[in-house]
Amino acid sequence: MRLVAVIIIALMTAACDQEQDITGSTPPCPLRNYSYNPRDMNQCVNACKACDRGTTVTCSTSCTLKGAR
């Protein structure tokens, strides 16, 4: 009987996931909705810094990989 109770409690605890999925749950950045050209390096870096809280180095690398010049 104890084994059944332990299994039930373990299953109930496993079902309660405290960590929420945040992927895509943040509102879209207004800067990306208008007047943003991802191919322009300056605009891409500025949008990355403003919307993704990136640094110049990480944003310029990201924009370069996306094809900005």
Explain what you see:
With about 70 residues, the protein is an all-alpha fold. The chain is built from four helices and no strands. It has helices spanning about 1-15, 30-35, 40-50, 55-65. Helix 3 crosses helix 4 (about 55-65). The longest helix is centred in the first third of the chain and has 14 residues, at about 1-15. The protein is rod-shaped. About 10% of the residues are buried.
Rg result: 22 Å
Residue share in helix: 55-70%
DSSP strand content: under 5%
| Helix/strand class | mainly alpha
Described by strand count, sense and barrel closure, the largest sheet is: none
Number of helices: 4
Short description:
The chain is built from four helices and no strands.
Question: What's the helix and strand layout?
Answer:
Elements lengths: L1 H14 L14 H4 L7 H11 L4 H10 L4
Helix pairs in contact: 3-4
